[in-house]
Amino acid sequence: MSYKNVPYFQDLDSAQVKIALAQVQPQIVQPNDVLSIKITSLSTESNVLFGDNMTESRVSGGGGNNNNNNNTNAMQYGGFLVSETGDITLPTLGKIKVLGLTTAQIKDTLATLASQYVKNPTVTIRILSFKVSVTGDVARAGTFPVSNEKISILEAIALAGDLRVTARRENVLVIRQHGDEMQFARLDLRSKKVFESPYFYLNNNDVVYVEPNIKRLERNENLYQNTTIILTVLTTISLLIYRFR
User: Fold this and answer.
1) What is the pTM assigned to this prediction?
2) Which helix (H) or strand (E) is 222 found in, with range?
3) Which of 37, 101, 154, 218 has fewest C-beta within 10 Å?
């Protein structure tokens, strides 16, 4: 097995101390996202109008395609589920379109609406259901929640226990849904250029697929099989020697 294909960032100069980093893009709210929303103000009326903690499970009316599974997910997350049509329904404020907006834009919208009822409202919002999945030739494939709405591909791979030695580091695939389209990007983790990629920071629901190197995998399997055969033969010989001595 060639060592030269194993290390990350092979073209990074050992004397280099800085490198340009891709900008973190604001997260865009999608159908079936679960949002944590809280509206407060100096007035005690805000608790009555908007709830003292707007994190109970609610499904927006008019979604059309919401099902029991979505309801269950909303209750597990304890937030407001975005319907298939991109709406949420909040106490007092009613149904609000949030599809395609960032959390900052939703925050501004809710603050404007809430200001009709209370003075100087404060809105806090985040995506509770933010998650990424890592699968393929990694130590622990899985889906991982992200609490701060920011995660790089390196952090996601670390959560999955890192790539196996047999993984193709030069061809890591990021799968991203954008509206009705699926986007695909292949990243070379052996190169420092990965830090400049718009896919370096992952979006909500991104999937990272790590392809195995078939030749390395076959060599490992052959080595395992040969080792097993040798151990079996040695065990048999040892038993025979013990039996007839």
Assistant:
1) 0.75
2) helix 214-244
3) 218
